[in-house]
Amino acid sequence: MNTREKRPIIEAAGVHVEERPPRRSTHFLELVDVHKRYGETEVLTGIDLAVEEHQVVCLIGASGSGKSTLLRCINALESIEAGAIYLDGVEVSDPDTDVNLLRRSLGIVFQSFNLFPHMTVLRNITLAPRKVLGLSRAEAEERAHTLLARIGLDDKADEYPDRLSGGQQQRVAIVRALAMQPKLMLLDEVTSALDPELVAEVLGMIRELAVEGMTMLLATHEMSFAREVGDRVCFLDAGAILEQGPPEKMFTDPDHPRTRAFLKRIIESGRL
Amino acid sequence: MRQFFDTYLSWEHLSGSFPAVWRGFRINLTLMVVSEIFVLVWAMVLALARGASTRVLQPVRWVAIAYIDLFRGIPALLVVYLVVFGIPIAGVPWVSDWSLFQLAALALTVTYGAYVAEVYRAGIDSVHRSQTSAARSLGLSHSSTMRFVVLPQAVRRVIPPLLNDFIALQKDTAFVGVVGVLEGFRRAQIYSGTHFNLSSVTGLALLFVVLTIPMTRFTDYLLKRDQERMRASA
Asked: Taking CB atoms and an 8 Å limit, are B133 and A104 in contact across chains?
């Protein structure tokens, strides 16, 4: 039977048949042997990682181990030299993939917040929903106000970012990403630029997201937090995942001597 | 001392030449405003072309770079001379029929577009890459990112150097007297030629200064207001 001839009938019935590329990975997010280099320096030396929906996966490791680069590669802010990245069955690293479309389903939050300083908090949050998703101003603002009210910052809607504390700015940055209704959140050391007393409010918000079932991949130096919210912890060393496992095992009885050495340094510096 | 004042600031000649000089100066003013508007737009086109990053647009980028190098190198006076005298006889379609004033505006736009394009570019480069990353990661296209995130910040930052170029442009409107436009300098020259006194030119010089200073102060005020709105702590 020729399936092509069926099409018009379906369309006449008003059924929209979406042409989807064949699913190329069975995992929600999958990285296969990903390599990335900046000039002579190989930053990622073969990353294999799979994340399922509603999982929270924490990336730990020394500065320069490739955590940030890994996150930037997943939403195609950086191109990769070899390997493949699949999100929800679509290959991110395929040059034919529409990255703008892909990024709608990915939220990323940066260490340095990166709010737009010339826009109010409200406009920061509504910009992408309006310009990318095509929401009306009223719809986008309603969504923003709801989110801001949820985190107790609705009174800051008309302020400029520089008037907010670091913790507030970072929470607004998280809301800005959430306003796009992403399927996956990438968090890149989101508390590293914060004063210690402001870290808790941001971690609290991420904890809520985790409990509510948001799929997250987060690079962090907050070991006790990783241990608490992570379904799995990956230790990165020299651009590769040296070891991964459940937090309890990773933090108490890791297999690899390098992981043990890293955690020992962390414990000695009083961060676990 | 007396002689000095008689040469440059004779009241008789300052007031006597004023009506003619003022009439001419109004042409400078119009020329300045018209050219500035076109410069702002043309320079933005050049700056964006120069910053083109995709491989397909590389030729556009090279053309923009060549244009900027060329017209920043040629003295404005020469461009005015070549355009205003040359275009009508060069048989360039459409443009050849333009009036002296229109051609003068074209010449100034061509020259100052190159300067201002570089000012814009410096502004665009000064916006941190992380702003682009944040915008792109939200799914905004390259052009939306430029339009809503990069350019608004870039333009704010380059307002002082932009004003600097505009003051220079304002003064260079005096060049078009050379090609026969009866602007302020040409009027002042005619007056000083017939009365053997330079006060008409001094008077014009004062008009230029009087125009510049409030403009600078106004821009300072705008910048300060903008900064206070964004930076001051609550």
From this structure: no
Interface of B with A in 24-43 (CB under 8 A): none
Of A4-8, B121-125, B213-217, the least confident: A4-8
Nearest CA in chain A to B144: A131
Query: Which pLDDT score is estimated for B225?
Result: 83
A117 with B141: Cβ contact below 8 A? no
Range of lowest pLDDT (A48-52, A161-165, B132-136, B229-233): B229-233
Nearest Cα to Cα of residue A113 among A58, A210, A192: A192
Q: Given B134, B144, B156, which is nearest A110 (Cβ)? A: B134
Asked if B140 is an interface residue toward chain A (Cβ–Cβ < 8 A), one would say yes
Strand A29-38 and strand A41-51: the pairing is antiparallel
Distance CA B102, CA A1 (A): 70
Question: Residues A182-224: pLDDT tens digits?
Answer: 999 999 999 999 998 899 999 999 999 999 999 999 999 989 8
CB A183 within 8 A of CB A175: no
Taking the model in full, what pTM does it have? 0.84
- H or E element: which one contains B70? helix B58-73
| Helix, coil or strand: residue A66 | coil
Residue B34 has pLDDT above 50, yes or no: yes
Average pLDDT of B79-89?
91
CB distance B131–A116 less than 8 Å? yes
Min Cα–Cα distance to chain A from B119, Å: 20
> Which residues in chain A are closer than 8 Å to B230, comparing Cβ atoms?
117-118, 160, 162
Spacing of C-alpha A231 from chain mean position: 15
**Exposure b/e, A130-139, CB count within 10 A at least 16 = b:** bbbeebeeee
